[in-house]
Amino acid sequence: MTVLAFDLGGVLFTDGTAEFAAHLHDDHGVDLAQARHLLTGPLGSAYRRGELTRDAFWHAFRQALGLSVPADELAARWIDGYRLDSGTRDLIRQLSRHHGVYYLSDNVAERVDAVERRHRFLGLFTGGVFSHEAGVRKPDPRIYQVLLDRTGVEARHVVYIDDKDWALVPAAALGMTTILFRGSGHLRRELVRLGLLPGDQ
Questions:
Q1: Does the 3-14+84-193 domain belong in CATH 1.10.443.10?
Q2: Burial of 160 (0-12, 13-18, 19+ CB in 10 A)
Q3: List of long-range contacts for 135-140, beta carbons under 8 Å, 24+ apart
Q4: How far is CA 96 from each of CA 105, 118, 126, 154, 162, rounded to the nearest angstrom?
Q5: What is the dihedral of CA 57, 49, 16, 8, to 10 degrees?
Q6: Within the chain, which residue ranges are assigned CATH 1.10.150?
Q7: Predicted local confidence at residue 201, as pLDDT
Q8: What pLDDT score was predicted for residue 199?
Q9: Is the separation of the CB atoms in 58 and 67 below 8 Å?
Q10: Which of 65, 106, 152, 191 has the greatest number of beta carbons closer than 10 A?
């Protein structure tokens, strides 16, 4: 049995983190590289691993950037950047008829809850792994092992899809088949090539 595992931001959803960093730069004059570093570097990673509370993250984030914008407003704007890719959603629905479909996502509880209220996406999946629950994030190989443990299958039976090439490297090292996401149309073609979808659509 082949199991498919999907990253969320940048695959099922637009890359809300990249959009949020661009918003901070465009609307608040924040240095783009600094915003990205805070969101994806040590501070953002600690938040995604569940090591920082929401309040602690936003306090440190606002202080580092010298922002007076309320934390609630910033958090809401970050979440607004996650818009559903209907093409990917439809592929997941189609795949789930014959395969286990899982998510593997670096995330935080508050964002998952907010995006779920808006898009009801969790029901698309058999199950999955969030970094804030596992206490580890990509590209640490341990989170991929948590995924394998959850699916109950060997790595050679897993196809992992992510929009970031560095996140695919540990999956491939464990023996998973990997696909770099370049849009739902490209993904469909790759899945047809692997024999996981019919080629007449």
A1: no
A2: buried
A3: 135/49, 135/50, 135/51, 136/49, 137/45, 137/48, 137/49, 137/106, 138/104, 138/106, 138/162, 138/164, 138/167, 138/170, 139/166, 139/167, 139/169, 139/170, 140/170
A4: 18, 22, 8, 19, 18
A5: -160
A6: 16-80
A7: 55
A8: 80
A9: no
A10: 106
Contacts of 100 (CB under 8 A, 6+ apart): 1, 3, 4, 126, 127, 151, 153
- Could you identify the residue written with the tokens 């508050």? 110
**Buried-state track 64-86, b at ≥16 Cβ within 10 A, e below 16:** ebebeeeeeebbebbbebbeebe
Is-contact 49 131, C-beta < 8 A?
yes
The encoded tokens of residue 123 equal 């029901």
Record the tokens describing residue 190, joined without a space: 């790759």
Quote the CA–CA distance of 161 and 167 in Å, as a whole number.
Answer: 9
The CA-CA-CA angle for residues 86, 26, 69, to 5°, reads: 95
**Where in the sequence of the chain do the CATH 3.40.50.1000 domains occur?**
3-14+84-193
Instruction: Name the pTM for this structure.
Output: 0.94
Angle (CA) 164 167 173, round 5°: 135
> By C-alpha distance, which of 149, 126, 121 is closest to 136?
149
Question: The tokens 């024999």 sit on which residue?
Answer: 195
Q: Between β-strands 3-6 and 100-105, what pairing exists: parallel, antiparallel or unpaired?
A: parallel
CATH of domain 16-80: 1.10.150
